[in-house]
């Protein structure tokens, strides 16, 4: 790992570009000193005492959540796994094999389903164990700690994601050191459902922008603000500003590599942070994202099998078993959850984004919708809205704002995350490519992550 550490930070100490969700969250004003030790801060407060003070320390910025809180769901998953084995083997299949099942199914059906169940249960258990035992990649193990940067400029552009609606590439690029400041800057905290929600919002956005025009039936003046409707040719696209300089984490005291974020639950910086997963008790990041995909695949297969099998058994049984019904309900819940996670994360991999990075696309959509609504009103003028969106798409060549790390073909991006061997795509073996610190950058972005118009793309890029 020494060689990796030697490569970081870059010699010119410039931020190599990255303006992701965490950059949008630094909403608190900068303190006089960014080197705040949570323990010291708590020592200042004499009003706290006893248990409250202990809790305050445990939840202090930069500290991981209590171990039992982080791992509780893991024990629940283990319990559900053992319970599913008991119900299916002990209460469903064994009676079939002993020819005393109320379903009337034969010994052969009982033995066959038992074998399928045990194989799927073992695959589910193996992939889950691999998932919880493989760390996401901790930046502190790869990046040397550095002293508090002396340069600091207030994070003016952090107050809102898009402080200006126009930006020429290169303009607005301010040399500064970036800090995670204040409670909002402990790190992004996307929920498990965040990527699913983003995909749905994306689809809704496209549906709305494809609505048939009704402008002929509406007045020319914007109903929203009562002003003259803008010319669609003059409306500028909102573009996020970019800052230059290392992103320094005050908790880990390191310059964060690209795509690294500080997890507020684990209390440390995670390489290619995706999200903190309750069900595995740790983060999903660079080193274990592939196992997350594989686990979701086997969990989905396992729970779908349970769902179908137990539905058939219940429909044909003359007596109702409460535990079978209970397992049926739990299986349905987890089948839905894991299938949504699986397909959403495959989509994210093929578009070169992590969960937290996909927020940038969502924010862009919101900003663009706000502009169109401001100029044309919430309802109507769909023709003009479509013309504006088409013009923006033309100017940016269809490049997405959150495609900073989309590089190469879909197959290449899949291999980057899942490894080269197809066996490692199905079974929880192997490792991702690369080192989690350096990533190929989309040439449609500038060296600091500026989202470039098509005219500014390097020669040969289409
Ligand atoms: Zn950190
Ligand atoms: Zn975490």
UniProtKB/TrEMBL annotation:
Documented EC number(s): 2.3.1.225
A single BP term in Gene Ontology: protein targeting to membrane
Gene Ontology terms: cellular component: endoplasmic reticulum; Golgi apparatus; membrane
Boundaries of every Palmitoyltransferase DHHC domain copy: 245-360
Note on domains (UniProt): The DHHC domain is required for palmitoyltransferase activity.
Keywords attached to this entry: Acyltransferase, Lipoprotein, Membrane, Palmitate, Transferase, Transmembrane, Transmembrane helix
Transmembrane segments: 72-89, 109-129, 297-318, 324-350
Its membrane topology: Multi-pass membrane protein
Main location: membrane
PANTHER family membership: PALMITOYLTRANSFERASE ZDHHC6, ZINC FINGER DHHC DOMAIN CONTAINING PROTEIN
Matching InterPro entries: Palmitoyltrfase_DHHC, PFA4/ZDH16/20/ERF2-like
The protein, known as: Palmitoyltransferase
Record field: catalytic activity: L-cysteinyl-[protein] + hexadecanoyl-CoA = S-hexadecanoyl-L-cysteinyl-[protein] + CoA
A Pfam family matched in the record: DHHC
Subcellular location per the Swiss-Prot or TrEMBL entry: Membrane
Domain of life where this protein originates: Eukaryota
Taxonomic placement: Eukaryota, Fungi, Dikarya, Basidiomycota, Agaricomycotina
A single GO molecular function term of this UniProt record: protein-cysteine S-palmitoyltransferase activity
Protein family (similarity comment): Belongs to the DHHC palmitoyltransferase family. PFA5 subfamily.
């Amino acid at each position: 790992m020494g060689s990796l550490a030697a490569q970081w930070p870059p010699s010119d100490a410039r931020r190599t570009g990255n303006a992701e969700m965490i950059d949008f969250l630094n909403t608190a004003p900068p303190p006089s000193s960014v080197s705040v030790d949570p323990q010291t801060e708590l020592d200042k407060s004499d009003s706290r005492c006893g248990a409250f003070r202990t809790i305050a320390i445990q939840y202090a910025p930069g500290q991981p959540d209590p171990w039992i809180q982080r791992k509780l769901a893991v024990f629940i998953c283990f319990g559900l796994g053992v319970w599913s084995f008991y119900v299916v083997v002990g209460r469903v299949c064994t009676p079939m094999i002993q020819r005393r099942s109320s379903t009337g199914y034969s010994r052969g059906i009982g033995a066959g389903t038992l074998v399928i169940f045990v194989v799927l249960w073992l695959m589910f258990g193996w992939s889950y164990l691999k998932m919880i035992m493989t760390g996401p990649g901790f930046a502190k193990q790869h990046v040397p700690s550095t002293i508090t940067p002396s340069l600091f400029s207030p994070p003016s552009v952090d107050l809102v994601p898009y402080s200006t609606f126009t930006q020429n590439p290169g303009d607005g690029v301010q040399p500064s050191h970036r800090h995670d400041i204040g409670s909002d800057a402990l790190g992004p905290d996307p929920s498990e459902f965040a990527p699913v929600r983003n995909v749905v919002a994306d689809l809704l956005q496209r549906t709305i922008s494809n609505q048939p025009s009704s402008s002929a039936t509406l007045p020319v003046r914007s109903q929203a603000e009562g002003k003259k409707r803008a010319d669609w040719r003059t409306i500028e696209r909102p573009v996020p500003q970019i800052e230059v300089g290392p992103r320094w984490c005050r908790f880990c005291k390191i310059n964060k590599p690209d795509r690294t974020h500080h997890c507020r639950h684990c209390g440390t910086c995670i390489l290619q942070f995706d999200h903190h997963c309750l069900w595995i008790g740790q983060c999903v990041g660079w080193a274990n994202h592939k196992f997350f995909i594989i686990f979701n695949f086997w969990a989905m297969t396992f729970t779908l099998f349970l769902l179908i099998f137990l539905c058939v058994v219940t429909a044909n049984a003359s007596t109702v078993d409460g535990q079978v019904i209970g397992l049926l309900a739990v299986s349905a819940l987890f089948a839905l959850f894991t299938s949504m996670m699986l397909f959403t994360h495959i989509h994210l991999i093929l578009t070169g984004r992590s969960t937290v990075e996909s927020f940038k696309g969502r924010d862009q959509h919101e900003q663009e919708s706000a502009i169109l609504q401001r100029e044309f009103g919430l309802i109507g003028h769909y023709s003009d809205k479509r013309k504006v969106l088409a013009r923006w798409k033309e100017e940016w060549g269809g490049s997405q704002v959150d495609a900073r790390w989309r590089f190469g073909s879909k197959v290449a991006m899949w291999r980057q995350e899942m490894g080269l061997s197809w066996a490692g795509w199905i079974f929880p073996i192997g490792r991702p490519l690369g080192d989690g610190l350096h990533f190929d950058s989309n040439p449609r972005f500038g060296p600091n992550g500026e989202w470039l118009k098509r005219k500014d793309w390097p020669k040969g890029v289409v």
